[in-house]
Amino acid sequence: MYIGKVIGRVVSTVKDPGLASQRLLIVQPLTPAMQPTGKQIVCTDSIGAGAGELVYWTRGKESSFPFLPVEVPTDTTIVGIIDQLRVAG
Amino acid sequence: MYIGKVIGRVVSTVKDPGLASQRLLIVQPLTPAMQPTGKQIVCTDSIGAGAGELVYWTRGKESSFPFLPVEVPTDTTIVGIIDQLRVAG
Amino acid sequence: MYIGKVIGRVVSTVKDPGLASQRLLIVQPLTPAMQPTGKQIVCTDSIGAGAGELVYWTRGKESSFPFLPVEVPTDTTIVGIIDQLRVAG
Amino acid sequence: MYIGKVIGRVVSTVKDPGLASQRLLIVQPLTPAMQPTGKQIVCTDSIGAGAGELVYWTRGKESSFPFLPVEVPTDTTIVGIIDQLRVAG
Amino acid sequence: MYIGKVIGRVVSTVKDPGLASQRLLIVQPLTPAMQPTGKQIVCTDSIGAGAGELVYWTRGKESSFPFLPVEVPTDTTIVGIIDQLRVAG
Fold this sequence. Notes:
homopentamer, CATH 2.40.50.220
């Protein structure tokens, strides 16, 4: 999984039926030292993250597991909110 | 998912039977600030996007979900059209 | 999917039984403007592409769909031949 | 699989139910010559790795295999601890 | 699939039960012109490759196909040995 920060959202009327009622959040991937790294992506959200929150997200088919048995066509999903990062000195 | 813009299409007569009747669109990946980022790709399309439209697309096996129960051999599919991007400050 | 050109092939006697009777083609990924981009890869082929042909290929599990119900251990497969690319000015 | 070192952990209260009771470790990917390479990631752990340990980890859906039949929404999992790397001169 | 050379192996006592009795080889990815490209990885092996051999390997879930019905948690597997590469001039 990857660390990131919620920085916005996508407004979308025309979308695949499998994405109906899914919120689409824009996430900036971050390093554990809070440096931006790589491109901003659009994530579905299984846990109710809000703007500005530090989260971790999955990539690939696992990203649809939280929505089973519905087969949501997403490949990037926020699966947790980070309270704290403990990195050894 | 990733943000992109439809910039063209692929004309293809000889293709895997699983791709029959699929439109193949060329997409330029973009950042939320509308800067091109990474290579242009060929996407199938589950929602009827047109040239010049701003879209979001998935990568990987999830890209074939919109076509189930048909197992379409695609790994990049447009799943929604973007009305607006709301990025915080 | 990704655009590429068939530039050669791999001769291999010892291989996984799942790859028996599969041709293994070397593909150079290209941009729509025909510039080489990224590393050359080894693809299986579901449509009979030949040396020098412009093709599109998939990455990941979808690459094994054309061979179902056989579970071919491939992650890169040519799924179509490109007749023409129409990119908007 | 990829080589890495456990350098910390993520403390997270709000997370997908599928991740309940999973430890979340921060891993720095390394080359076999022990040079850091690429971004630090958040891994689940199927074998009980500790801080400072040299490990190998998988990426993608295979990362959820150790937890079957539970469908854990993770795409990066530590699957072994490295005793020694033997690289030919 | 990708071209590579076996350059070493990983010695590991503590590992996921799904990896029991699997050899873990270190592979340097190569271009068809035999230039190193990208990070060295740890592969399982379905065909008995040895040190110094030129091989091709898969990435992703397909990497576990050779071991079915056992669900081996690997995402990189050597699936063939290369006798010769024929690249068009």
